[in-house]
Amino acid sequence: MLEYLRQLAWDPSAPVPLGWPHGWAGVLLLFCFPGGLGVPPGVLLGDRDGFGPASLATLYLASDVVVAAAVFEPTLRLLARASRHVPALERTGRFVLLAISRTMPAGSLVGPTGVVLTGFGAGLPFGRFVAAAAGYGLAASWLLTVAGDMLYFTLGMASTFWFQGMLGDPRIAALAALVVMLVVPIAIRRLRA
User: Fold this and answer.
1) Measuring CA to CA, which residue among 93, 97, 88, 101 is closest to residue 76?
2) Three-state DSSP state, 132
3) Calpha distance 112→140 (Å, rounded)
4) Are 160 and 23 contacting, i.e. CB atoms less than 8 angstroms apart?
5) Number of structural domains, the chain?
6) Which SS3 state, helix, strand or coil, does residue 185 take?
7) Could you tell me the residue range of the domain that residue 17 belongs to?
């Protein structure tokens, strides 16, 4: 199965192996890959299976909810509890927050835009971490963070469709979309600074 996932990342048009979920389940599984790596292959696979942009966005939103609820929130809560007893872990948390705050303009980290941009550029766990540190509650933290991550997905989906239409090669389209998804958040942070 791992070999197929590696192959699918480089050739989204590859045939689905026996036992791989078809349709929405296969796309949702790809969207659950961390760091946005599954976005271009998931978009191309979903497009091949007849899903439109609205359906793909809904599946990506579902993946955010699944990943946030099942993985990140319990992990962040466990780390918060453990940091009370492990000074090195507490220092690491402060270091991560400081590192994120250095990429943001002064004072913007605590505002909703700072949380959305952190969710956009750094992903769900970091957006939630920044929101919690800024004093947002559970629901507000995740809403702002997921809003940023959905903007990130929209960028990835649009880039994937654009490169696929322009280049015609799904492998190059997926790779080019990943580059755009890496470069644009960095450029936005620099422009805001």
Assistant:
1) 93
2) helix
3) 9
4) no
5) 1
6) helix
7) 2-192
What the block records as the tokens of 156 is 């990835």
Give residue-wise pLDDT tens across range 3-29.
655 665 555 555 555 566 778 998 898
- Closest to 118 (Cα-Cα) out of 139, 99, 91, 137: 99
Q: Which residues are CB-contacts of 92 (< 8 A; sequence separation ≥ 6)? A: 83
Which residues neighbour 90 within 8 Å (Cβ) at sequence distance 6 or greater? 83, 84
Alpha-carbon distance 188 to 66, whole Å? Answer: 28
Rounded CA-CA distance 48/38 in Å is 15
Name every residue whose Cβ is closer than 8 Å to that of residue 33 and which is 6 or more positions away in sequence: none
Q: By 3-state DSSP, what share of the chain in percent is helix, strand and coil, each rounded to 5? A: 80, 0, 20
Q: How do residues 105-145 score in pLDDT, each as one tens digit?
A: 555 556 788 888 888 888 888 888 888 888 888 899 999 99
CB 164 within 8 A of CB 139: no
